Amino acid sequence: MSAQAPVPAKMSRAQRAMRFVLPVIVFAAGLVAWELVVRIRAIPPYVLPAPSVIVLTLIKDWAVLSQSLAATLLTTLEGFVAASIGGIALALMFNQSKWVEYSLFPYAVVLQVTPVIAIAPLLLIYLEQQTAVVVCAFIVAFFPVLSNTTLGLNSVDRNLAGLFQLYGASKPQTLRFLKLPAALPYILGGLRIAGGLSLIGAVVAEIAAGTAGAGSGLAYRIAESGYRLNIPRMFAALLLLSLAGIVIYGVLALVSHLVLRRWHESALGKEN
Amino acid sequence: MVASSSSSAVEASLTALAVSLRGVTKVYDNGVMALGPFDLAVRKGEFISLLGPSGCGKSTALRIIAGLGAPSSGTVRVARHEGEVQPRRVQPGHGIGFVFQEPTLMPWANARENVRLPLRLAGMPKADARARADEALASVGLADFADSFPRELSGGMKMRVSLARALVTDPDILLMDEPFAALDEITRFRLNNDLLALWRSLRKTVIFVTHSVFESVYLSQRVVVMTARPGRIQADIRIETVEPRGEEFRTSAAYSDYCRSVSAALAPSYSGRSTL
């Protein structure tokens, strides 16, 4: 018995390492194949740039691209913050009053199911450009926060709710000590989705705005480089966007883990 | 010995009653009659068990006493709270401690914070409340686990935390809804003994809901046997033995005699109709 115990532990450690190593190997292999195909068949960079060319472009154009990255990230952040505050606040209102929920929820759904790419041009007509872009990011990102928070607020343990009632908790007390902590895992899940979505919303709006002539975000760089057939720069900007998305997700996942690690199932080790 | 006593002597000394229910019924929205008519008189400091088959309305009766649900008809009287902690608002559960079937702890808070909750809701200053929470935890033998989170505790320990939380406001009446039903027998026996010790030192009125004949006889001064739905009183059996009770009572002939007569009183409830 005691001799068997370490073996699965070792295997799972190896397994964990493999989960990290294998995707990296696949990625590296893909890059090498890509590089080889481009070199052997002598494909010109304006058709398909080699990975090495993309990296060189990224370094060469860093001044322009970093500025665009900063612009896009700022838009994303503003949209994300607005979506978080708006989504949570609306969910709290829904939770306090059924009438508010009945009155407003359908419109939240309508906002969610209407493709944002179709709303963006309209917003650009009525709003200042930067505002319109942020509003787009907000529209895309706020619904998951709203629906997750609502779900969380409604998932309170019935007996715990009874306990609060027994001890005469006021509404604000119940909200603060019971409903919000109980909803926290759901809220954090919603925020994790909203982080990625606000980046998407920002990019969509930038592309829509870019065709109108102005803008400086990464998506605008992609559109602009496309018109100029500067394909390596398109790829470089795309690479940055992708990395930004990964970082946003990683940061939010980390925050979620740190907040929940003491008590929530999702953050606990499997050995427990 | 085995006396059926819902006698007028008990009814007469109304002042000494902690809880009194008269003609209480509960009809659910779907028309199911869950309880009653149900009469119950519990004297101050008494330890009684409500014993009955699943779905007989014993938990419903307990929730009505706690003020967590309103009766469909009948009157409920609960003696006024005389403990020192006075919640700011007059509330249904005034002076009542409630232990649920599950530990019902907040998973995001450690044991101390869970126990402190009732005091926090009553607006007690933090330092005082923490001291009392630690005291309550010590009284259930968990002084060293104040900083542990519920997931780090065993089932029995969680139940102890739950018990400490019910005791922290120093209520006059302790309502327990099948609190040890989900625990293994060894843990349950230990908790039974600890509960009896606590009851002897604190002299609270305890109403203990259970579906275990053996547990009810071991713990209580009176076993109230309920019928299947709608729950009514089938028998009211007084358990008299040498106090304080201990493990020797659990293995005594008197104990098995009481268990036999309680089981006999319970038999009509589970023969015939199925209520599950």
Looking at CATH, the homologous superfamily of the domain at 18-93 and 206-276 in chain B is P-loop containing nucleotide triphosphate hydrolases
From the structure provided, what is the oligomeric state, counting identical versus distinct chains? heterodimer
Percent strand of chain B equals 15-25%
- What's the overall average pLDDT of chain A, rounded? 87
Structural class of chain B: alpha/beta
**Spatial sequence of strands, sheet with the most strands of chain B:** 5-6-7-3-8-9
Order of helices and strands of chain B: HEEEHEEHHHEHEHEEHH
Describe this structure as you would to a colleague.
The complex is a heterodimer of chains A (272) and B (276). Chain A is mainly alpha-helical and 272 residues long. In chain A, helix 6 (129-153) runs antiparallel to helix 8. Chain A has 10 helices and no strands. Mean pLDDT of chain A is 87; it is low at 1-7. Chain B is α/β, with parallel strands linked by helices and 276 residues long. Chain B has a domain at 18-93 and 206-276: P-loop containing nucleotide triphosphate hydrolases (Rossmann fold), CATH 3.40.50.300. Chain B has helices at residues 8-12, 58-66, 111-121, 126-139, 155-167, 185-202, 213-219, 247-250, 253-270; strands at 17-27, 33-43, 47-51, 73-78, 96-99, 173-177, 205-210, 222-226, 233-238. Chain B has a 6-stranded mixed β-sheet, with helices on both faces. In chain B, helix 7 (213-219) packs across helix 9. The longest helix of chain B is centred in the last third of the chain and has 18 residues, at 185-202. Chain B is globular, with a radius of gyration of 18 Å. The A-B interface holds A 157, 159-160, 162-170, 173, 177-178, 181-182, 184, 262-264, 268, 272 and B 63, 66-68, 87-94, 96, 98, 100-102, 104, 106-109, 117-118, 120-122, 149-151, 169.
Write the layout of secondary structure elements.
The complex is a heterodimer of chains A (272) and B (276).
Chain A: H1 6-40, H2 51-60, H3 62-96, H4 98-113, H5 116-126, H6 129-153, H7 158-166, H8 171-211, H9 218-227, H10 231-260
Chain B: H1 8-12, E1 17-27, E2 33-43, E3 47-51, H2 58-66, E4 73-78, E5 96-99, H3 111-121, H4 126-139, H5 155-167, E6 173-177, H6 185-202, E7 205-210, H7 213-219, E8 222-226, E9 233-238, H8 247-250, H9 253-270
Parallel strand pairs in B: 3-7, 3-8, 5-6, 6-7
Antiparallel strand pairs in B: 1-2, 1-4, 8-9
Helix pairs in contact in B: 3-4, 3-5, 4-5, 7-9
